[in-house]
């Protein structure tokens, strides 16, 4: 429908009868040819289904055929739009349909887009019919009056000739406009009814977003593991070696002057401290034991390190995805840190299990309570991490305690 | 003493060979992965194996699994496992095979040369060397049992026993007299209902109860 800028009057006039105009006319004429039989078949099938409803089989077959016809007609209409107008009607995201005909029928009947397409095929005979009749009528009218004009001119009837020329000119000028108007109407109807609806588009968008988010989360997780591995294989070993050499120097070079010995002692202590700090940091990044032995082992390490008694009950017969394991580990780690810092609890309990394809995790403590995810960055960080894999986090923490944090993570 | 060493970092491997050599131990073979370790032990029949936990090709707990295999094949072989992180789970897996001639230390401990060599010799002599960090993890975990009856001092003594120290070593570590250590140990035995005749046997039992392995 777009047109390049036209400047001179001649360009305007020639554009009027350009290829595009003829394609539009052809579009309307073929539209009628396709739409009329299509609508007839649709109406016929509906009528058959309604009239023979008592046979049960006929309406089912008729409706199955109906949806098939609708699909076929839609494909035909799309090719028509792209051939004559160069307009691509965006496709509706395909759905996987059941093999069972009855269930398939129910699924089709439930999809809103099937009914939208059906309504287009009932509506388009009107648009195309009116368009084809009007445009073809105007074109022929223009030609016929032009013929009359020639005839009257040869007969010498000047006044008649002038009138016919005028009428013919007007008809030939408004012909392209009408063709354009009706095709525009058809395109609007097709885009609204054959293309994806807003909800279809949203569904597709949500799907792509979910996929890309999962990829981002997985990538971030893989990156943490890579950093952990690099530090473990490189920096940590180097530091251990350095500390060991300093330790050897400290143990053997006892006859050095005191200041030199002091320097070695200091360097040794610094190296050991750096080693410990790096170790704590790397472990927080991604514990190696989580990779090697799974959630149970990693959590028991956490529980053992916690400065308060932690009862741990992990019932996970099989491993889940590394990302979900990492999130679960992070939740427990963060929750236990929070409990130790704020809750003043005397004990905590961690239970992990799998039910209905979801990892269910609960961290309980008998502390002060009053934990609120809307305040404090710890719980918010938890919620974000859980949300990143479409998990659910529920915090139940009345003032005065006790506190239970429940997390559900999808394992599929 | 003949030692087989398994460590994939060349830097650290060379350093350890030098360290052990300086202490009069003889490193007969140095392996870079678990398969090499198993072959080297078969070939050289060492007195002691020192192995890293994480090694190629999988870079997971290969060294630990190799240690467990070796332990099953040769129950008398002394094994010291070095690890970047000490995990209670690894410790209990190791200790489930036996508590003698076993060591499990944080790699950092290598830096404290004398103590490290001391631990090595203890393990080679059939003793235990458990990293204080593992012991601390285990200690924190065991709360609701007879161990609750122990006083803090007794607990400290017990964790040092679990690390594999002798009475003299414990006395030195806690800066108390050796006779005080003996008294504490007797109290521990009573509280844990270990009234057997053989003292060393009771020591091991106390540690076992402590570690729940």
UniProtKB/TrEMBL annotation, chain A:
* Domain Putative sensor: residue ranges: 27-194
Which GO molecular function terms does the record list? Answer: ATP binding; phosphorelay sensor kinase activity; protein dimerization activity
Q: What is its EC number?
A: 2.7.13.3
Name the Pfam families on file.
HisKA_3, Sensor
Show the InterPro entries listed in the entry.
HATPase_C_sf, Put_sensor_dom, Sensor_HK_TwoCompSys, Sig_transdc_His_kin_sub3_dim/P
Q: Does the keyword Glycoprotein apply?
A: no
| Gene Ontology CC entries for this record | membrane
List residues of the Signal transduction histidine kinase subgroup 3 dimerisation and phosphoacceptor domain.
Answer: 223-290
Does the keyword Transmembrane helix belong to this entry? yes
* Catalysis: reaction(s): ATP + protein L-histidine = ADP + protein N-phospho-L-histidine
Origin: domain of life? Bacteria
| Gene3D superfamilies reported for this sequence | 1.20.5.1930, Histidine kinase-like ATPase, C-terminal domain (3.30.565.10)
User: Which keywords does the record carry?
Assistant: ATP-binding, Kinase, Membrane, Nucleotide-binding, Phosphoprotein, Transferase, Transmembrane, Transmembrane helix, Two-component regulatory system
TM stretches of this protein? 21-46, 52-73, 126-150, 162-179
Q: Which PANTHER family match?
A: NITRATE/NITRITE SENSOR PROTEIN NARX-RELATED (PTHR24421), NITRATE_NITRITE SENSOR PROTEIN NARQ (PTHR24421:SF10)
Q: What protein name is recorded for this chain?
A: histidine kinase
Q: Which organism is it from?
A: Streptosporangium becharense
TrEMBL record, chain B:
User: Which residues are modified to 4-aspartylphosphate?
Assistant: 52
Reply yes or no: does the keyword Acetylation apply: no
All residue ranges annotated as the Response regulatory domain in the record: 2-122
Q: Does the keyword Cell division apply?
A: no
Q: Sorted alphabetically, which keywords does the UniProt record give?
A: DNA-binding, Phosphoprotein, Transcription, Transcription regulation
Q: Where is the HTH luxR-type domain?
A: 143-213
Give the matching InterPro entries.
Answer: CheY-like_superfamily, NreC/VraR/RcsB-like_REC, Sig_transdc_resp-reg_C-effctor, Sig_transdc_resp-reg_receiver, Tscrpt_reg_LuxR_C, WalR-like
**One MF annotation (Gene Ontology) recorded for this entry:** DNA binding
One Gene Ontology term from the biological process aspect of the record: regulation of DNA-templated transcription
Tell me what this protein is called. DNA-binding NarL/FixJ family response regulator
Gene source species: Streptosporangium becharense
């Amino acid at each position: 429908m777009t047109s390049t800028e036209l400047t001179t009057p001649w360009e305007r006039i020639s554009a009027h009868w350009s290829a595009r105009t003829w394609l539009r006319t052809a579009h309307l004429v073929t539209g009628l040819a396709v739409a009329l039989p299509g609508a007839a078949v649709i109406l016929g099938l509906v009528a058959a289904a309604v009239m023979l409803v008592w046979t049960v089989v006929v309406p089912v077959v008729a409706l199955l055929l109906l949806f098939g016809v609708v699909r076929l007609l839609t494909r035909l209409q799309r090719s028509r739009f792209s051939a004559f107008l160069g307009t691509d009607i965006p496709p509706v995201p395909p759905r996987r349909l059941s093999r069972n005909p009855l269930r398939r029928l129910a699924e089709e009947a439930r999809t809103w887009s099937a009914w939208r397409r059906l309504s287009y095929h009932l509506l388009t005979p009107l648009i195309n019919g009116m368009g084809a009749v009007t445009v073809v009528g105007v074109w022929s009218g223009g030609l016929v009056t032009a013929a009359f004009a020639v005839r009257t001119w040869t007969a010498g009837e000047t006044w008649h000739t002038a009138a016919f020329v005028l009428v013919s000119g007007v008809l030939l000028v408004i012909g392209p406009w009408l063709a354009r108007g009706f095709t525009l109407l058809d395109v609007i109807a097709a885009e609204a009814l054959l293309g994806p609806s807003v909800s279809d588009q949203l569904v597709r968008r949500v799907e792509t977003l979910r996929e890309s988010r999962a990829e981002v989360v997985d990538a971030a997780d893989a990156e943490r593991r890579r950093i952990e591995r690099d530090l473990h294989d490189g920096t940590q070993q180097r530091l251990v070696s350095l500390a060991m050499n300093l330790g050897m120097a400290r143990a053997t070079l006892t006859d050095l002057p005191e200041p030199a010995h002091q320097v070695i002692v200091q360097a040794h202590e610094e190296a050991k401290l750096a080693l410990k700090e790096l170790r704590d940091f790397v472990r927080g990044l991604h514990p190696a034991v989580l990779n090697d032995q799974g959630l149970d082992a990693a959590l028991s390490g956490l529980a053992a390190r916690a400065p308060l008694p932690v009862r741990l009950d992990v019932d996970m017969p099989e491993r889940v995805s590394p990302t979900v394991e990492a999130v679960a580990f992070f939740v427990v780690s963060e929750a236990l840190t929070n409990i130790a810092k704020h809750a003043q609890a005397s004990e905590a309990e961690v239970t992990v299990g799998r039910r209905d394809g979801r990892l269910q995790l609960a961290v309980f403590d008998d502390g002060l309570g009053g934990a609120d995810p809307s305040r404090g960055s710890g719980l918010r960080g938890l919620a974000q991490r859980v949300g990143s894999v479409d998990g659910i986090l529920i915090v139940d923490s009345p003032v005065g305690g006790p506190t239970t944090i429940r997390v559900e993570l999808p394992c599929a | 003493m003949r030692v087989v060493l398994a460590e994939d970092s060349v830097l650290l491997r060379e350093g350890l060979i030098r360290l052990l050599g300086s202490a009069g131990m003889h490193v007969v073979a140095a392996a870079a992965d678990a398969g090499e370790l198993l072959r080297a032990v078969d070939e050289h029949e060492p007195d002691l194996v020192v192995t890293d936990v994480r090694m190629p090709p999988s870079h997971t707990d290969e060294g630990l699994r190799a240690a467990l295999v070796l332990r099953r094949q040769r129950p008398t072989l002394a094994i010291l496992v070095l690890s970047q992180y000490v995990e209670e789970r690894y410790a209990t897996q190791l200790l489930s095979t036996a508590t003698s001639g076993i060591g499990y230390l944080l790699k950092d401990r290598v830096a404290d040369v004398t103590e490290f060599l001391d631990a090595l010799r203890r393990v080679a002599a059939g003793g235990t060397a458990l990293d204080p960090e593992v012991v601390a993890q285990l200690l924190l975990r065991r709360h609701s049992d007879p161990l609750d009856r122990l006083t803090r001092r007794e607990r400290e003594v017990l964790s040092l026993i679990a690390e594999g120290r002798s009475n003299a070593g414990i006395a030195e570590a806690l800066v108390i007299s050796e006779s005080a250590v003996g008294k504490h140990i007797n109290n521990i035995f009573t509280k844990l209902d270990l009234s057997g005749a053989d003292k060393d046997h009771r020591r091991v039992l106390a540690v076992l109860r402590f570690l729940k392995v």
